[in-house]
Structure formats: C-alpha cells, structure tokens
Amino acid sequence: MKKARLEKRLSHILSHYLATHLERDAAAPPLITIQAIDLSPHLDCVRVGLSFISLETPFDAEVFLEKKIQPHTWRIKREIAQTLRHAIRRVPRELLFYVDHTPTKAAALEALLQKVAHPQKARTY
Fold first, then answer.
1. Is residue 62 assigned to a domain?
2. pLDDT tens-digit profile of 7-33?
3. What does the alpha-carbon distance between residue 115 and residue 111 come to, in Å, rounded to a whole number?
4. Which residues, other chains included, contact 17 with Cβ-Cβ below 8 Å and sequence gap of 6+?
5. pTM for this structure?
6. What is the pLDDT of residue 48?
7. Is residue 110 part of a domain?
8. pLDDT tens sequence across 73-97
9. N or C, where is the chain less crowded by C-beta within 10 Å?
C-alpha cells in the first residue's frame, strides 16, 4: 500500500512537472496532453504517453515527438533529477515518451457508435 501511494505521488509530481516543461519549452506547439505515466516497479523507468490534439495524422505526432521532444530528453531528465533529488531517494534513470493513440481511437469508436445508434433512414422512391 505504501508503494502504491509513492507511485501515485511520484506520477502526479512528474505529470505536473512535465506539463509545465512541455508548455514552456515547445516552440509553436500543438496541443499536447499527458495521457499516461507508467512507472516501472523499481522506479527506474518512466514511460510518458503524450497525445497531440491539433496535429492532422498520427504520423505527424510521431514526427513531432521524434524531432522536438526526444532530443531534449536528457535535459528533462537532468531537471527532474535536480527538482526531485530531495523528495525521493531514487530518481528514474530512463524517461521514455510515446504517442498515445487512445483519444483518436476513442473518437473513431464514438463516431461508429453514433452511426449505429442513428442509422440513416432508407430512401424509398
């Protein structure tokens, strides 16, 4: 129970820090939301799921992540370590970003459910 509380607290702190960092450092950013923060059992690795709302295709999101965010991962890790070094005993060594496609899939599923729930009336000539 104590470990779950620590993981929840750490994920909350990381999400707050990453949100402010991404908002501050992204030049002309699309709308970025943090969808998930997954912590490894020993808190060595943090996986951050990002969603890009204003980009056209999932490929654009992958390219933006690769070109604009991943090159700065080392700096983000260093700043997290400096910020959290007194709060927690062990700072995560790995910080991995990935594109979370859940909102896109949810929108497609919602559109499909709307289509099934309200089928167009059959035309009679």
1. yes
2. 888 888 888 888 888 777 665 567 788
3. 6
4. 79, 80, 83
5. 0.74
6. 92
7. yes
8. 888 888 888 887 777 777 788 889 9
9. C
